Amino acid sequence: MIRTFLLFFVLFLCNPQSFAFLIKGKVEVVKGRAHIFRQGRILQLVDDMNVYTGDVIETAANSSVLVEIMDMGLLKLKPKTQIEFPEGDDGQIQSSRLNLMYGEAWIKIKKLVPGETFELKTPNSVSLVSNSIAVATYQKRSKKATYSVIEGNIEVHIKENHYFMMSGEKLILDDRRNSMARHRKIDSFKLNQQWKQTITIREKLQRKIRESKHLPTKDGKVDAKIPLVHIVSPIEGVPHKKRRMRLKATIYEEHLDRLILTVNKKVVKDIQTNLKNFDHDIVLNPGKNEIELKAIDQFGNIGRDIKTITLLEHAPSISVFFPLDNQELDTRFVDLQGVVDDVDVKEVKVFVNGRPIATDRAIPTFHVPMILDIGQNVIRIEATNSVGLTGENEIIVWTSTKSKIVIDFERFFE
Questions:
Q1: For 220, how many CA atoms within 13 A lie in the half-sphere containing its CB?
Q2: What is the helix (H) or strand (E) element at residue 66, kind and residue range?
Q3: Tell me, what's the pLDDT at 18?
Q4: Which residues contact 390 (CB under 8 A, 6 or more apart)?
Q5: pLDDT in tens, 202-249
Q6: Is the overall model pTM greater than 0.70, yes or no?
Q7: Span 294-319, average pLDDT
Q8: What is the β-pairing status of strands 73-77 and 82-84?
């Protein structure tokens, strides 16, 4: 019975479907907040964490990651980058390919021996890397990929085209129809220095030095880790329509001491607290707003989360159907009709020759009865949306000085 069980266990490990358990690298340094998606779970990325096939690493704003690719080289990720160690990568013990979903990645790969391969893919292209240092970027919105070679040579494939690149060259690939590949010269030394400033192994060493200087708490414990801060809402990456909203955040820190909330570089809340959940009302401006929540523990460790929240910045557009601009009317009694090109319009105000006439309800279309003056009438319509932005449109109409009366005498004497 035991032999049967052991045989089954060995066959399971040798089964190609067990690729999800293959180790492909190790996280060396994490600066800021980053996550790893693993088998349906979201885990906080920390130093010395193993990376397996099927894992997806994602860096947040103002964070970066240094990963050692097992027996292959090094990988650096800039903020707002997502990279995948794909499932099924079991053709060799080392990692043979990475998928850059979006963002920027720096990669250093050793000289490969016969039988070894390494590919760095983006959604529209693939590069073959060996004995080289290169930088790859991919922008989801524009579907644009770029490759820069710092040292060595790489080969880039996109559809039926192949490009061979040398040190100091940059290739820009646009996935749009009829677009051409563009070649540029770069300062490879300067580019590599920029990536050295992004993240290095020194970050880990300096952190360990700081940890060694911490004193234990009253219960004899030492807290050497930075607080983990996560802003739950508002959500980043989608346009918002309300200026006033509720910020909610979660802080993972046993010895939390202080929280500082800033909106667009201005401190709106600074409190001494040990609560792990935080919420506060904030007011945003039209356009982009930077929200930062900083957590400080009793040992001076600082953790932060930064999000860029976009508030609608376009004022409503107003179209008038009747009356038309510069139209001459036979009557002073008209119904102003039009539409506001903003589904979140809050109210519509109408002015005639500077006098407020009416305020219509908050719907995209408006229908306002009014009495005009004799002669020239300047009609101004103002529409305000939920963000507080106001758009306006102005037309001029004329009414005749004499009333036009038509009497049908034949019908009158019937």
A1: 0
A2: strand 64-69
A3: 41
A4: 315, 316, 382, 383, 384
A5: 666 666 655 555 545 444 554 557 788 888 888 887 777 778 889 999
A6: no
A7: 83
A8: unpaired
- State both tokens at 63: 């964070």
Task: Please determine, for residue 12, whether its predicted confidence score (pLDDT) is greater than 50.
Answer: no
Triad 187, 192, 197: Cα angle to 5°: 130
How many Å apart are CA 143 and CA 333, to the nearest integer? 55
All domains in the chain, ordered by first residue: 12-198 (2.60.120.1440), 221-311 (2.60.40.10), 318-399 (2.60.40.10)
Asked whether 298 and 255 are in contact (CB, 8 A), the reply is yes
Q: What are phi and psi of 235, to 5 degrees?
A: -85, 135
| pLDDT reported for residue 377 | 92
Residue 222 or residue 109, greater confidence: 109
Rg value, the chain, Cα? 32
Rounded Cα–Cα distance for residues 333 and 337 (Å): 13
Which residue bears the tokens 């009158």?
Answer: 412
Token readout for 359 is 């305020």
- Asked whether residue 273 carries a pLDDT value surpassing 60, the answer given is yes
Q: What is the pLDDT of residues 47-81, one digit of tens each?
A: 888 888 889 999 988 888 999 888 888 899 999 99
Sequential DSSP letters for 131-199: SEEEEEEEETTTTEEEEEEEESEEEEEETTEEEEEETTEEEEEE-STT---EEEE--HHHHHHHHHHH-
What pLDDT is attached to residue 314? Answer: 73
Give the number of residues written for the chain: 414
Closest to 293 (Cα-Cα) out of 270, 273, 310: 270
Q: Do residues 237 and 213 make contact, with C-beta atoms less than 8 angstroms apart?
A: no
- Residue 50 and residue 67 in contact, taking contact as beta carbons nearer than 8 Å: no
Q: How much is the pLDDT for 208?
A: 60
Percentage of the residues of the chain whose pLDDT score is greater than 90: 15
Q: What is the DSSP string of 229-243?
A: EEEEESPTTS-B--S
Question: What is the rounded distance in angstroms from the CA atom of residue 43 to the CA atom of residue 45?
Answer: 6
Q: Which two tokens stand for residue 321?
A: 């159907």
Question: Residue 226 is encoded by which pair of tokens?
Answer: 């930075």
Give me 171's structure tokens.
Answer: 């290739």
